[in-house]
Amino acid sequence: MNLFRPRFNDGDVLDIDGLRVRLKVNRRARRVSLRIDAARGEAVAVAPSQRRLPEAAGFARERSGWALERLAAGPRSRPFAPDGKAPLRGRLVRLIATGNASAARIVEELDGPVILSGGEGEAFARRVENLLRREALRDLSERTAHHARTLGLRTPRVGLGDPRSRWGSCTPGRHSIRYSWRLILAPPHVLDYVAAHEVAHLVHADHSPSFWSVVKTLVGARLEGRAWLKAHGSELHAIGR
Ligand SMILES: [Zn+2]
After folding, report:
1. Ligand 1 centroid vs 165 CA: distance in angstroms?
2. Is the predicted pLDDT of residue 1 greater than 70, yes or no?
3. Residue 173 Cα to ligand 1 middle (Å)
4. Distance from CA of residue 23 to its chain's centroid?
5. Which of the listed ranges 30-44, 62-76, 114-128 does the model predict with the highest average pLDDT?
6. Which range scores top for mean pLDDT: 25-29, 147-151, 221-225?
7. What number of other Cβ atoms are within 10 A of residue 234's Cβ?
8. Which of these, 173, 179, 113, lies nearest to 143 by C-alpha position?
9. How far apart are CA 185 and CA 195, in angstroms?
C-alpha cells in the first residue's frame, strides 16, 4: 500500500467551475501552463512533473474563465497555445512557451522549425500571431514585388488584414494591395498565387480572360493555389481564434 499516493495523477480529469480540465505531465515543459483542446472540448493543464500537478490544477482554476471563453468560440477553433501546433508555410510547427516575456521567434531545430514565445494565455497567442503577421508581410511583400517587376510595374504598397471573405484585395487607383495575414499558414505556392492574382488586378480590375492570361504569365499553369484555398480556406480561418 502506498501511503503517499498523490492527489493528482497524469491523465486525471477535473471539473473546475464547469470546465473539463485534463492533467498532463510533460517532462519537457519548464513550467505549468494551460492549453485548449478544442476537439475534445477540454482544457489541458500541463506540469513538468507529477509533483507539480497540483500547481497546474491551481493555474487552471485561475484561468478557467479564459479557457471557457476559448472553448465557447467553437469546436473548430484552434487558438495558439503552448505545446500546440500551428501551420507555417504549410508545415505544422510546434509552439513552445519560454516562460518569460520575450517576443515570439522561429528557431530551426533538427526536425524542422519551432516557434518559441514568452507570455501566458492570451499574451502568448498574441505574440505568436504578431510573429506570423511579420512573416506574412515579409513573404507577401517579396512575392508582390517579384510579380510587379515581372510585369514592369512599380512595387505596390502592401498591407495586411484579417478579412473573413477574401484573401487579397487590390486598389489600382492607390497602387496598393491588402492581404489576409493567414496566407502565411498555407503552403508557399498558395501565397504566391494570391500575390500574382492581386498584382494582375493592377492591370485588369476584373476577372476577364485578359486578367487570367496575366495571372498565367506570372504563375504559369500553376493555379492549384486557387483550388487549395477553396478546399482549405475555412480551416485557415479557425486557426488562432
Ligand atoms: Zn480577383
Report:
1. 12
2. no
3. 15
4. 25
5. 114-128
6. 147-151
7. 11
8. 179
9. 15
* 49-80 b/e (C-beta count within 10 Å ≥ 16 → b): eeebbebbbebbeebbebbeebbeeeeebbbb
Domains by residue range for the chain, with CATH: 1-74 (no CATH), 131-238 (3.30.2010.10)
What is the Cα–Cα distance from 136 to 183, expressed in whole angstroms? 7
Q: Please give the distance, rounded to the nearest whole angstrom, from the Cα atom of residue 99 to the centre of ligand 1.
A: 43
* Distance between Cα 134 and ligand 1 center (Å): 24
Query: For residue 130, what pLDDT is reported?
Result: 97
Q: What's the CA-to-centroid distance between 13 and ligand 1, angstroms?
A: 49
CA distances from 24 to 55, 59, 83, 97, 203 (A): 12, 13, 11, 16, 55
3-state SS class at 75 = coil
